[in-house]
């Protein structure tokens, strides 16, 4: 155990902005923890509102603790709309294996909480069996609850007006909540939508548009993703085959475009508030969730501030967790 612990503590800190995958490190998770069948498997769970920095922290920790990441964002399960669903890019993954990310066809049936529980459980077992640390990251808290609780009832909504959140978990969990003040997060999300549009989200949605799906009153799977319904209404009036050159648009089309973008921003903010509300419900129900204040880091857009305020504390928490009996 001592030798493994020494290896565990010897990992050097490395930046998460990678231009190419780095070689996978040897295991730095004590093997006695992973392989002792009498104990619950250890899992790190990274929570937070959309845009708060969950993906960044998951990669930061995975590169330090020989981890692999399991996606728990409903919309990011699908292979398509990578910009609209804000999937972490290949360079940003820094060679860290990601599971349940971009694996489902866009027209596949919607993944249920029960199916996620089964798939993610298999991933956790597989990762732990190889001496790696499973890291759950994503904003779908209903799926996180379904995966982690000892007894899961697919027929109930744990976050309803009468919550039925269980505090009995089937894994030994370390919860990290990347939190940001309301005003800073609101500004950041609005700015991020503009950046996504500039990065090709409009063109991506135009290629994805299908008039048959846009007329449906019931949306499933990736067709629920923020951006799809908002621009389905836009493309219903201004079909994608028309010019994308903004200079050729009349005032009505520009106004329709701006309205769609505004709706995306508003719906993104509503999602963020719901995610925060559910994390607070989990916390008040007995889940030991460590809150990390990323406000200063997000406001400054500084890697140095992030490492000082978020990463340093996260590493301490995870180290204590992994060495705990």
TrEMBL record:
Q: From the record, what ranges are coiled-coil?
A: none
What catalytic activity is recorded? dimethylallyl diphosphate + ADP = N(6)-(dimethylallyl)adenosine 5'-diphosphate + diphosphate; dimethylallyl diphosphate + ATP = N(6)-(dimethylallyl)adenosine 5'-triphosphate + diphosphate
What are the alphabetically sorted keywords of the record?
Answer: ATP-binding, Cytokinin biosynthesis, Nucleotide-binding, Transferase
Q: What is its EC number?
A: 2.5.1.112
Write down the Gene3D superfamilies for this protein, in alphabetical order: Crystal structure of tRNA isopentenylpyrophosphate transferase (bh2366) domain, P-loop containing nucleotide triphosphate hydrolases
Record bears the keyword Nucleotide-binding: yes
Instruction: Read off the Pfam families from this record.
Output: IPPT
InterPro entries the UniProt entry points to: Dimethylallyltransferase (IPR039657), P-loop_NTPase (IPR027417)
Q: Which PANTHER family match?
A: ADENYLATE ISOPENTENYLTRANSFERASE, TRNA DIMETHYLALLYLTRANSFERASE
The record's similarity note reads:
Belongs to the IPP transferase family.
**Protein name in the entry:** adenylate dimethylallyltransferase (ADP/ATP-dependent)
């Amino acid at each position: 155990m001592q030798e493994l612990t020494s290896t565990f503590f010897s990992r050097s800190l490395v930046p998460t902005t990678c231009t190419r995958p780095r070689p996978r490190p040897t295991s730095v998770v004590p093997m006695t923890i992973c392989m002792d069948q009498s104990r619950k498997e250890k899992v790190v769970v990274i929570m937070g509102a959309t845009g708060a920095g969950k993906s960044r922290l998951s990669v930061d920790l995975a590169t330090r603790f020989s981890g692999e990441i399991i996606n728990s964002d409903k919309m990011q399960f699908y292979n398509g709309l990578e910009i609209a669903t804000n999937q972490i890019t290949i360079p940003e993954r820094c060679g860290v294996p990601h599971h349940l990310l971009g694996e489902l066809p866009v027209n596949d049936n919607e993944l249920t909480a029960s199916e996620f529980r089964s798939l993610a459980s298999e991933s956790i077992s597989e990762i732990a069996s190889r001496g790696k640390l499973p890291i759950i990251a994503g904003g779908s808290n209903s799926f996180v609850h379904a995966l982690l609780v000892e007894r899961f009832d697919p027929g109930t909504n744990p976050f309803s007006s009468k919550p039925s959140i269980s505090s009995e978990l089937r894994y030994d969990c370390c919860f990290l909540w990347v939190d940001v003040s309301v005003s800073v997060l609101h500004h950041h999300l609005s700015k991020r939508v503009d950046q996504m549009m500039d990065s090709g989200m409009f063109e991506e949605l135009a290629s994805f548009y299908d008039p048959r799906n846009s007329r449906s009153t019931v949306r499933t799977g990736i067709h629920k993703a923020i951006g799809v319904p908002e621009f389905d209404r836009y493309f219903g009036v201004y079909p994608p085959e028309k010019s994308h050159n903004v200079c050729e648009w009349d005032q009505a089309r520009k106004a329709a475009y701006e309205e769609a973008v505004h709706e995306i921003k508003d719906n993104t903010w509503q999602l963020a508030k719901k995610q925060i509300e559910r994390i607070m419900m989990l916390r008040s129900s007995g889940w030991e969730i460590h809150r990390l204040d990323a406000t200063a880091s997000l406001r400054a857009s500084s890697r140095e501030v992030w490492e000082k305020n978020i990463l340093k504390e996260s590493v301490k928490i995870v180290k204590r967790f992994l060495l705990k009996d």
